[in-house]
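Dear support,

We are seeing what looks like truncated structure output for some complexes. This example has four components. We would appreciate it if you could run it in full and send us the complete token output so we can diff it against ours.
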Amino acid sequence: MDEMFRLDNQLCFRLYTASRLVNQAYWPLLSPHHLTYPQYLVLLVLWEKDTQPVNDIAKRLYLETNTVTPLLKRMEALGLVTRKRGKEDARQTLVTLTEKGKGLQQALTDVPLTVGKSVLCESVTPETVPDLFRMLDDIIGRLASHPDTP
Amino acid sequence: MDEMFRLDNQLCFRLYTASRLVNQAYWPLLSPHHLTYPQYLVLLVLWEKDTQPVNDIAKRLYLETNTVTPLLKRMEALGLVTRKRGKEDARQTLVTLTEKGKGLQQALTDVPLTVGKSVLCESVTPETVPDLFRMLDDIIGRLASHPDTP
DNA sequence: TATATTTGCATCGTGAACGATATAAATAAA
DNA sequence: TTTATTTATATCGTTCACGATGCAAATATA
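Here is the complete output from our reference environment:
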């Protein structure tokens, strides 16, 4: 039938699958700490800059607040972050790492390298990764900018 | 802090984000037909080869049956497929396209090209797409083969 | 100042993903 | 032929994603 419809010709399917499988690669490293991958991403954001409003965290991860809010509540329940209303702007909810949340960075030091190594292969090497980064960044930039088709 | 932890150095985060954003690009094209993206993938699989057991569909999409089963039930409710037990092997559930499910291919002819175009950009062109495909395929092949780290 | 609009979060409902577990049919082993 | 094991699906519970909607605080407008 139409060649366009062949699964093997779909970029999106590859992205979708690669994303899921890499996500699974994190599981054995994060689950001992009762962490999920999106929660780990939130930690990455907060480790870079502590005490941020929900909106900033969501934007950084290209997510909506309705995804991040319940996620942050679970992280609060785990004792990793605190959430309190902003003083200047009472609409904002400021998210701050607890000592436990900060300390987790030590326990997870080898996560990036471990996952990084498990992804390296024939065509994905330290030399080619920058190319892959550029292509993915371009796709993200293109799709994040506009909701429509231009 | 540790450079390894910077969000901008994470391949996984790029894959995760690109996958989600491309997925969103499908939404306006699929939602008029009450289709989700994973359901569209199932259609792609069945359009290539009709009447397959759940397991074959799941394997083709690198998914588990516990993800695919409820998805297929929803597609059955939409009148896109039928599910019936195999005659030779009564453990299998054979999934077959209905006329409506087959006919949907006509209604969606321009989906692959439309999404394809919306992804093209500076560094992702008809010339570079094969490179991107190869890298993603290698990552998928590497992660799909083993559950561990070798 | 009173009203309208925007902004920042939160709530709700639905559909994936996926680990864990269950169940029946098919196959292998004893 | 019994019994044990494997295989093919399905069920259950939790956590995302995300569209739609609601609400209060902040800001803009009249």
